[in-house]
Amino acid sequence: MEKYEAVTDLEKDLPPITAMTDATVVLFFVDMAAPMTLDGTISGIQKE
């Protein structure tokens, strides 16, 4: 992974990550069944 990149997998767990330099990792745990999950200003953008 590089700066500003993101990963996701809805079917299986993500593998462990190791930072090679000082880093900040931000994680979002999302309930995909929650009513507002896909209705936000960013997450609500759906590709057709």
Q: What are the main properties of this structure?
A:
48 residues; little secondary structure
The proportion of residues forming helix, as a percent range, comes to under 10%
Count of alpha/pi helices: 0
Number of strands: 0
What share of the residues does DSSP label as strand, in percent? under 5%
By oligomeric state, this entry counts as: single chain
Globally, the shape reads elongated
Category from helices, strands and their pairing? little secondary structure
* Rg, nearest Å: 14 Å
> Residue-averaged pLDDT, rounded?
77
Instruction: Sketch the major β-sheet.
Output: none
Q: What's the end-to-end separation, in Å?
A: 27 Å
Which residue ranges are poorly predicted, with pLDDT under 50 across at least 5 consecutive positions?
Answer: none
How would you explain this protein's 3D organization?
It is a single chain. With about 50 residues, the protein is mostly loops. The radius of gyration is 14 Å and the shape is elongated. The two termini are about 25 Å apart.
Layout of helices and strands, plus pairs?
Elements: no helix or strand
Question: What is shown here, in short?
Answer:
By secondary structure, this protein is largely without helices or strands. The chain contains no helices and no strands. The radius of gyration is 14 Å and the shape is elongated.
